[in-house]
Amino acid sequence: MTLADRLANLGTETAFAVSLAAADWASKGNRVYPFHLGDINLATPANIAEAMNVAIAEGKTGYCPAAGIMPLREALAHDVGSRRGLPYTAANVVVQPGGKPVIGKFIQTVMNPGDGVLYPNPGYPIYESMIEYYGGQSLAYRYVQTDTGFAIDLDHLRSLITPSTTAIIYNNLQNPLGCESSPQEMQAVADLAIEHDLTVLADEAYYEMRYSGQSQSIAALPGMFERTVILYTFSKKFAMTGWRLGAAVAPVAIADSIAKLNTNDESCTTHFVQAAGVEGIVGSQTGPLAILAELQRRRDAAWGQLAQIDGFVCPKPDATFYLFPKVTDVMARMGFDEVGAFATAALHATGVSFCTRKHFGRPQPGEVDHFVRFAYSGLSVADIEEGLTGLRSWIDAS
CB-based contacts of 256: which residues, under 8 Å, 6+ apart? Predict the structure, then answer.
């Protein structure tokens, strides 16, 4: 049997690889605190689950339009558009089985083999995987540390653009860094996209997962509506990670092409799940607000514990559910020179499982500091405090 050569270019969501090590350690009778995976261990709001049950009882279990059912497309167009001040209609919306498929379908739509696509690094690893799987040039732009977190290295970003560069992936409210662009930084990215005629994938998975301030969309800047595809997901706001429901919100020509890919890939997104999505958008928002409030409590607990660890440098993000502390000094004090070895030792000594910077794209030349990522969305406040207290005690004893 011979497998396709392109499979060698296919990466994975590396947090799941960390899950295997954590599960193996737990299978041996050890307690594990799963800070590695950005899942949400909170129930989907009851009104959404009930809407699904009603849809199933009504027989909405067959095929439906490839682009999505019209009530959901209309609801998304209004909701996404009104929050960003943009005139979206149902024609701009293509429903997906999750937010992740938008990445691959965007790349298939706007990139030919050999074209360059800019993407954030550290960043969500599926960006790099999909660009390379479909034969593109993966152009990783980096971040620099600031007093309050991280910022895009705009000079580096600008230096990567060539005549063959066709698109940029821009993840404001960023996974894994938890950071967001200043208005000036967002405008600078938009200016580059316009100057070089780049199509933009605005990954806005965490647009509404914020504890203070107001989210902004690059699509709302002058000249960007016509060249930006927004990645929308139900996974975060509605705690629907396993339901697999999302959407591409895009210029009509791109939306039509993505709908055609839907027909070829999966025919359609599950009908009764889409009906539940309608309820999520137009129904009671009590559940999503409660989810956000609980995540804020978890953010405060996790940051409070990590900030007390001597040698951890940990910004406190206003959004997402990730913390990305620098651990260079701690590792040096404890005698570790490889961040993976530090993570494994922490798991075995304390049960605390987390990802490292290396799980979010290939490290770039010149990187000298070490970082790790804590996702606090899947643990209770009590477990966060218990696990990170143990981590701090282990480090302090070194």
Answer: none
Mean pLDDT of the region 87-93: 98
**Whether residue 83 is found in the same domain as residue 198:** yes
Q: What is the pLDDT of residue 301?
A: 98
Q: How far is CA 141 from CA 56, 112, 119, 172, 306, in A?
A: 45, 20, 6, 14, 28
Task: Say whether 295 sits in a helix, a strand or coil.
Answer: helix
Which CATH number belongs to the domain containing residue 158 in this structure? 3.40.640.10
Query: In the predicted model, is pLDDT for residue 296 greater than 90?
Result: yes
First to last CA, the chain: 51
* Residue 89 and residue 107 in one domain: yes
Q: Print the domain residue range for 224.
A: 62-282
Same domain, yes or no, for 231 and 369? Answer: no
What integer is the mean pLDDT of 371-397?
97
pLDDT for 148 equals 80
Mention every residue, 6+ apart, whose C-beta is less than 8 A from residue 290.
45
How many CB atoms sit inside 10 A of residue 100's CB? 20
| Residues 22 and 150 placed together within one structural domain of the fold | no
Provide the domain count of the chain: 2
- Give the 3-state secondary structure of residue 390: helix
Distances (CA, A) of 131 to 110, 169, 183, 186: 11, 10, 28, 23
What confidence tier does 93 reach under pLDDT thresholds 50, 70, 90?
Answer: very high
Q: Which residues pair with 192 in a beta bridge?
A: none
- Does 291 fall in a domain? yes
Tell me the percentage of the chain whose pLDDT exceeds 70.
Answer: 99
